[in-house]
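Researcher: Structure for this, please.
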Amino acid sequence: MAMKEEIISYFKNDRSYQGGISLYMKYGNRIGFKKQLNVQVESVQMLNTLHEELRSVAGMDHQQLRSLLSDPVGKPPLEEAMDPRPRPATRKPAAKGEKIAKEAKKPASKPKESKTKQVKNQNAPQQKTTEKKEE
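Model: Predicted structure, token format:
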């Protein structure tokens, strides 16, 4: 496989730090950057710099790199279609009017009685008991 196709394949299918290092060690020209890759730990900044250096080595322009990086990392389409594993179901967000499942499962609370009804209920049993005693 030619250098450019191998780097493009890396951007389409891998994008890992270690995979990028191995490609740069194989095709890269800057000895200082190779030393830096061996010394520094993996970080987002180093990965972005590595991607930029690989783009430069492959002779791609910035637009091509952005286009490749905007696509998700994945398998080639043929392998993806032949994959027998079931795909997980995606959940759609609830609409404004719909209740969330957790809220719907909560038991309904009894309506609270007003204070006047509570006072009447407290007085009612006392009156009935006093009436019974009088008879």
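Researcher: Any notable elements?
Model: The chain has a mean pLDDT of 75. The CA atoms of residues 100 and 106 lie 11 Å apart.
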